[in-house]
Write a sequence for this structure.
């Protein structure tokens, strides 16, 4: 894993290090919720819920979306960060395999033409 | 191998290969079956038996299944052997070919000497996946995705 990914992961785990925030995040993972709904489920005050959501949003874990007149919060597995992580590991694996394949071909060429 | 991130919406990789520039280019573009992680990274229903880049600008980039079926991945945007190739990766978040989606994979083959080549890869334009958030949410909300991993983390951390 590259260092920038580790930094991002560290920020995310830090954001989830608080038991209430972790509870909020897992709640949103099941279904997008409004601040009021989260407050009701968790028995945490609305201002406190808003503050927790802000930390999760800043860490890139949660995003806000509008559904009619309601603002819902959901896990931010948005296309950009998700796909970036996917391609990061795909090209790590792909280029390592490419290196092996190209070097095998190079070795066989050297044997033919020393 | 080193991994670095230049811009937030691209992935950059560099790898030093003990092969000439010509061999590196040829293996990368004409022998994908020898190195592409085909079992895990293909989109067709059939088992993937080959990955093909047609060697010309405008050429197709596609996978071939064991039943002879072909699934497009994208096309060739620049073809400059043995130094550079740019491919369009046009697979949506749902792993279907989407001609309206454009991300670019640029690969440069820089000769260090006649037996070593530095291969620089950049996959850019990933911001194109932004509007596909709903599809990605389904993928990453799966039990093995990001959410599942965090739930597991929560269980372990809670012990």
């Amino acid at each position: 894993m590259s260092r920038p990914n580790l930094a991002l992961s560290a920020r995310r785990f830090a954001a989830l290090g608080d038991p209430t925030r972790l509870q909020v995040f897992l709640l949103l993972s099941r279904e997008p919720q409004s601040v009021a709904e989260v407050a009701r489920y968790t028995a945490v005050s609305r201002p406190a819920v808003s503050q927790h959501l802000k930390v999760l949003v800043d860490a890139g874990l949660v995003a806000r979306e509008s559904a009619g007149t309601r603002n819902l919060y959901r896990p931010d597995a948005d296309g950009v960060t998700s796909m970036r992580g996917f391609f990061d590991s795909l090209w790590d694996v792909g280029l390592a395999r490419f290196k092996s394949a190209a070097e095998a071909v190079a070795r066989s060429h050297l044997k033919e033409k020393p | 191998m080193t991994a670095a991130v230049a811009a937030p919406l691209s992935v950059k990789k560099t790898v030093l290969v003990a092969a000439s520039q010509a061999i590196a280019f040829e293996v990368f573009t004409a022998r994908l079956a020898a190195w592409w992680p085909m079992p895990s990274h293909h989109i067709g229903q059939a088992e993937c038996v080959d990955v093909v880049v047609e060697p010309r600008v405008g050429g197709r980039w596609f996978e071939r299944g064991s039943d002879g079926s072909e699934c497009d991945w994208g096309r060739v945007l620049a073809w400059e052997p043995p130094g550079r190739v740019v491919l369009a990766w046009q697979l949506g978040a749902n792993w279907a070919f989407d001609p309206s989606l454009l991300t670019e994979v640029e690969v440069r083959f820089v000769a260090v000497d006649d037996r070593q080549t530095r291969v620089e890869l950049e996959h850019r334009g990933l911001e194109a996946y932004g509007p596909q958030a709903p599809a990605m949410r389904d993928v990453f909300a799966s039990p093995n995705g990001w959410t599942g991993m965090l739930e597991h983390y929560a269980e372990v951390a809670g012990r």
Chain A has two domains: 1-76, 78-114. The mean pLDDT of chain A is 80. Helices of chain A lie at 3-15, 19-30, 35-42, 46-58, 79-112.
